[in-house]
Each structure stands twice: as C-alpha cells, then as structure tokens.
Amino acid sequence: MELNTSMVIGNVMRKLVDEGVTDFDSIADAMQTVKDLQNIEGLYSNDRYTEFGSDSQALVITEGTGKKNECILWCVNHYLGLNRNPRVIAKSKEIVERYGTGAGTSAMSGGMNTLHKAIESRINAMTGKERTLLFPTGYSVNLGAISAIPGKNDIILFDHQSHASIIDGCKLSGKQWLAFKHNNLTDLEAKLQRCQDKFQNILVVVESAYSMSGDLAPLREIAALKKKYKFYLYVDEAHSFGFYGEGGRGYCYEQGVTDDVDFIMSTLSKATASIGGFVSTKKKYCTLMSWHSNSYIFQACISPADAGAVLASLDEIESDPALIRGLHEKTAYFRKGLRAAGFDLGKSQSPIIPIYVRETKTLLAFGRNLYENGVFSVTIAFPAVKLNEGRLRFITNASHTYDQIDRTLAILIDVGGRLGIVPSASA
What we know:
The chain has 427 residues and is of the alpha/beta class. The chain folds into 2 domains: 42-73 and 322-418, Alpha-Beta Complex (Aspartate Aminotransferase, domain 1), CATH 3.90.1150; 86-319, Type I PLP-dependent aspartate aminotransferase-like (Major domain) (Aspartate Aminotransferase, domain 2, 3-Layer(aba) Sandwich). The chain is built from 15 helices and 14 strands. The protein has a 7-stranded mixed sheet, sandwiched between helices. Strands 1-2-3-12 form a 4-stranded mixed sheet. Strands 11-14-13 form a 3-stranded antiparallel sheet. β7, α8 and β8 form a beta-alpha-beta unit. The longest helix has 21 residues, at 321-341.
C-alpha cells in the first residue's frame, strides 16, 4: 500500500489488515509515516495545543515545529465560557486552600467529601430524579452505568451515531446490543417490536445532542414509544446539560420528557467547565450501579478544586440566564452566515456546527489554511466518523464575540472559496 499525505490515518490499519498485514509494528510504522508526511505539509491538526489553555482567542502551538499562531478557537466544549469566569476561578482557588488538591481514592473507599455530595444534591434538583451518582469523568459514566444496568437476558438498543463511550459501555456489559439508524424512529420501533418477546428488559440509549453532527434527538417521539413498548430510556445530555431548558436543566427538561427518561447522564467538563460526570435516576438504580460499575468503584473522585468549579459554574448558570440566551443567539448568527455562504452543515441544530468536507485531501488542506489564517478547529475523520463524512467541527461558545464570529466567517468564505468548498466570493 502506497502511503501518502491524503490518507485518513485512522483508516490505515483497516486497509493494511485487508491486505493481509497484521503485524503490530508494521501497522504502527505505516501510521507514523503518514502522520510524519502530513506534519511536514502542515496537514496534521490533532497534535496542536494551546499555550495557556482554552479561550476564545488562544495561542495555538504546532507540535514538532513549535510554530505559534494566535487563533480564534472553535474546537473546545466550554459552551458557556465559564472556564475563564473570575468567580469560578476564585472558587477553585478557595477550595484548594480548604480541601487540598486530590481526593485520594474512590467514592466507595472514602474519597467523597461535602463538595461531591453538594454537586449530587444540586443535580438532583435540576434533573428531578431521586438520586445522582457522581463519576470521575463523563466517559466513565457511560462505561460504568451502561455496563452495569443490563441483566443476563437483556438487550441494549443505541443510536448508530452514539459516542464511543456508549458503545464501549455496551461492549463491556457482555450483553447483546444492537444499533438503530440515527434519529430514525421507524427503525427504532421495528427493533423494539422485534425484541419485546425475546428479552427480559430493553435499554434504549440516545444522546440529546450528538457530538459529531450537532443533531438533536427526537426525545418526545422516543419517549412516546414507551406507551407501546416496555423499555428503559437512557439519555446522554453531555452536549445539552447546562444550556438547554430552564436554568440549564437540559434538553430532556426542555422537551418535557424528564419523567419518561429513566437515566439522565451528562459530563461536567463542558457547560460546567470542569471534569467529572453523573447519572441521575432512581435511588435503587444508583445503589445497583455503585456496586456494579467498575469505573465508579475503582476510580478516584474528582479533585476538590474541580468540584468547586462545578458548583460555582452551576451558580453562574442559575443566576445569569443571559449566558444561555447569548450562546444560542450567537449560534444562530454563526449558522445563518455559514448557510448563506453555501457550506454543508448537515442537520446541525445545536451549538455544534459541522462543516462537511467529504474529500480527505481537501479537508486536510481546509484545516491547514484556516489555521494559517487564525482559525483553529481540528479535522475529524474516520474512525470518529464515516469515511465519506469528514468535517471540521465548530463549537460555539458564549465567550465568542460577534467580531470573532464575523472574522471567522470571512476567513471560512475566503478559504472555502479558494478550495472549491463553497462558491468563491470573487466569482
């Protein structure tokens, strides 16, 4: 197989295996070669990093060359910009002085403190569930909760575009699992109907907002299926908790289906600008998960400073509705400008706005040219998405200014026009 810069690195292994190459070192060498070739031409974006952490305007460094570019940052999930909020930062500093740095051990081994319990209580009030279980990360929630819930004779049905953590949770469960077509109610219902008499319990897992496409799930319609079929509903609110629904209660709340959702999950690394994750449900289910979720039992609790940042962020969300309103207004403004220019945004509805560039060579060139002109977002390709669905993902934050949005639009239109992604402005 000839290696070149226009290859999707994530697909190199699969292509080599198809050709009969299965040696670990040979596959690793091939992937490294493609990465090195792309780095030489400035096409590889995944190793770039910020000098002083994420901000709407950040200094981004290209690993290897050390080249620094001041860029408008569009690849970070701090939707409400609270990672730079002075009150959130001050709270974290205060907490470190009083509680120290690390938790030291897991929740089941004595690592919890009053801050963790306060987070669980606050989230209970927001989700309207009996109890909340706090995990070290959002990924480990899906890994632990989904693997712990199903029983011996159960099946998990999940949306085809579900996050890797959901799929890994299904695999770890050791139970049967089956994907249904993305946001396709007909396919979901057909699979529910087929599984009703074959399995003791059915767990349906969806995301409220999908991280790679920005699509919103038809939660009302999915919840309505519970009137016809028996199943438990698990909703991942990682990309909606904190900035949908009154007081940031989430998309389940906004759609009026909270009571129909058995498990509400989210991360704390996005709207609440920290780290951690949670699942809210019935008290008895939390007890079950606390004894059967390895990622809960054997991982240390989030640090006190991170817990303090979550609580301070929740205070900001509750006290300042303009934060959420501003985020959605800026998202609508940005999306309108992109659509007017002719960019392919798919069916995105949330602050996640993908720009689809389905030819790999053009996608990589697009990312490089944007970066060189001061706009940074990483290229997304297989296996994160399908081979013909490469994209750059733009994540609107409340901290983005309208001037930054306008500058980004101008650069996108200019670069996109020169690469033939959209009609040229000079044509």
